[in-house]
Design brief:
By secondary structure, this protein is α+β, with helices and mostly antiparallel strands. It has a single domain, classed as 2-Layer Sandwich (Alpha-Beta Plaits). The protein has five helices and eight strands, in the order ααβαββαβββββα. Helix 2 packs across helix 5.
């Protein structure tokens, strides 16, 4: 069937691989060495909240799990498009713990049947001059892309391409630049 798919212009759909999130700490080391880009300790998962008690229960369980070790480090917000963002905060040095918690959020939603609601995950970084940079994981594509906003609806595409080049050996980078969607005002940036 591969030849028929190729003849009809269909491509094989990429499956999410949540374990690729665990490669982010290595990518962070690479970013710091190559571009002086460092993690902020903030990360977020974006999803479309479903109606009903089952989803509310899962969302409540997630927030309770993430807040279990003290202080409020989880914030929930809704953006202008109706997507829910669950923001997790850690110290800058605790990127592995942050990634583990983002993985837990994605896995919990996926395992409870809410995978179609998952949009992306974002881990925040700072470039020189405190410029925000995010590494965005597209759930449905299983790939990452950089996002570097510079102002209202403006982005630093040169920095994004530099980040892509730096982390290309560490992370599966989204090859289609048209899928590098801006996430203006995303929590975690």
């Amino acid at each position: 069937m591969k030849w028929l798919d190729a003849a009809l212009g269909r491509s094989k759909e990429t499956k999410p691989n949540l374990d690729s999130l665990f490669a982010l700490p290595d990518a962070a080391v690479t970013l710091q060495a190559a571009l002086s880009v460092r993690p902020t300790g903030r990360g977020a998962v974006c999803f479309r909240a479903a109606e009903g008690a089952a989803f509310s229960e899962v969302q409540g369980d997630l927030q309770q799990l993430l807040d279990a070790d003290g202080g409020p480090k989880v914030e929930v917000s809704t953006d202008a498009y109706g997507f829910t963002w669950l923001l997790v905060r850690h110290d800058q040095e605790e990127l592995p713990a942050l990634v583990t918690e983002l993985h837990a959020v994605n896995s919990t939603l996926q395992d409870n049947g809410f995978a179609p609601a998952l949009l992306c995950s974002l881990v925040g970084f700072e470039a020189q001059g405190d410029r925000p940079v995010g590494l965005v994981y597209l759930y449905k594509r299983g790939t990452f892309y950089p996002f570097a906003p510079t102002g209202p609806e403006q982005r630093d595409t040169a920095l994004e391409l530099q980040v892509r080049a730096a982390v290309g050996a560490d992370l599966p980078v989204e090859p289609d630049l048209a899928r590098w969607f801006p996430v203006w005002g995303a929590p975690g940036l």
